[in-house]
Amino acid sequence: MSAVAPRPSFHFTPPSGWMNDPNGLIVVDGTFHLFYQHNPTDVVWGNLHWGHATSVDLLTWEHQPVALRPDKNGEIFSGSVVCDEANTAGFGAGALVAVFTNDLLGKESQSLAHSLDGGQSWATYSGNPVITAPEQLADFRDPKVLRCIGEDGCHWTMLLAVGPEIWLYRSADLVTWSRSSVFVPERPYEGALFEVPDLVAVPIHNGSEKQWVLTYSVLSRTDPKRLPRTMCWQVVDFDGLHLSSDAPVVGGRLDHGFPFYAGMSWDSQDADSPVLIAWLDETQQLSGSGATWCGRLSIPRRLSLVAADSGLRLRQTPALKDDYLRPVEAASVALNSTKTVKLGCRAIVAQVDGPVLVGPQGQVAVSVQFDDGSLVAVELSGETAGFSQRPEQEPVVDCQVKRVAGSLSSMVLVIDAGSVEVFVDDGVIAWSVLTPSNAKPEALVVVNSSTHPVDTTVHRLVVDEGAVS
Ligand code: FRU
């Protein structure tokens, strides 16, 4: 019988039971609140509640009491939380209001709950649901609510995933909603439906100028090859009621790994935000026998936009506090040489830098080797970044992504028990992968056949002064 998988050291997991999407991300007085899709009684999807946790550093989390429970309107699916400063809903000034989908045996509607004690306890609204699905619509879920200031004052806007469309609703009080518009984002493949839309103002080049970015997850229901789920981003204009976008569309896949799904962002409008976090879907791989929990989230990722020849590109950098990173080994890897750095613990952040990290003919290959013989590899040539995992996992995880011309220079690998997340070209390309849960990373191998030396720094991640093993 296989041993129970170790928990990741710095990726969020539920205390017990099942977890999928992050929900209701909000920052209150400097504290990050994370709600999530949660089955507290079993390690499989179903019986969905909202779990709750808080953090001040996005790496160490405190579990809080379960926030929302299924009731006569159904299970609690995904949604968002807003702070109703002006008491528009009448629950109290500064109330946190959760806007979520109730799913009653496949019939979906939107409902409210509020908290007057900073998210510790919640009361569901007696008039739920506040929006019901038009007849025949089965996929009608995942409300994301934003406060909008327009010419006629303030109102609330809701984005809702409705099959192959995103619908926008408007409300003055969070209770009465009317539909204002419909938007159809780019679809990476035909027959796809959308889930968990989010709209975030992302700084351009980390400056003061911001651009609206729609993020959304895409589920293929009809593809015979059962294309894995994926998450996308798209630059949009938003006037408070409608979304639009220029042609050609600027956007693409947010992460090229198949487990990365249903992400959403904390957007506190300060210089450090937004920060996105997603579910690393392990339904097909990791749920091991004997485990009392199932589900992990990605590393939180700070978002910004950078200019490239092809237009703006979304950049993601792991939100890791520098003072948690302890250098283990730094090495320069000369041309045509190989360097092996012993890892020996599960929580590692490795960085590989070069002037342009491969010239036109060169190649740099970086792999994480595990003690069970498996490996995760990244191969950079001048034009492409190739990602692969051996032995192959299902669905197939090998992929090749075109790099941005004149690319940036650094690669970061975030390694924890059960997952590796790779950020290439300063975070413009991201790839996440699940790794065999009992395997321990043994070595980082850098093979440099490029025209420049590359520098490798391996850090051990130390959270709360306790060394992470
Ligand atoms: C995405 C999703 C959402 C839904 C939730 C149910 O993973 O399917 O669309 O609200 O999960 O758990």
Account of the 3D structure:
The chain has strands at 17-28, 31-39, 49-55, 62-68, 75-84, 95-104, 107-115, 123-124, 131-132, 141-150, 153-162, 165-171, 178-183, 192-203, 210-220, 230-235, 237-238, 243-244, 251-253, 260-266, 275-280, 293-294, 296-297, 301-308, 311-318, 325-333, 337-342, 348-353, 363-370, 375-381, 384-390, 399-402, 410-416, 419-424, 429-434, 441-448, 454-463, 466-467. The chain is mainly β and 469 residues long. The strands form 8 sheets. Strands 26, 28, 33, 34, 35, 37 and 38 form a 7-stranded antiparallel sheet that branches. The protein binds beta-D-fructofuranose. Beta-D-fructofuranose (FRU) binds next to strand 1, strand 5, strand 10, strand 14 and strand 20.
For this entry, give a set of tags.
binds beta-D-fructofuranose, seven-stranded antiparallel beta sheet, 2 domains, single chain, six-stranded antiparallel beta sheet, mainly beta, 469 residues
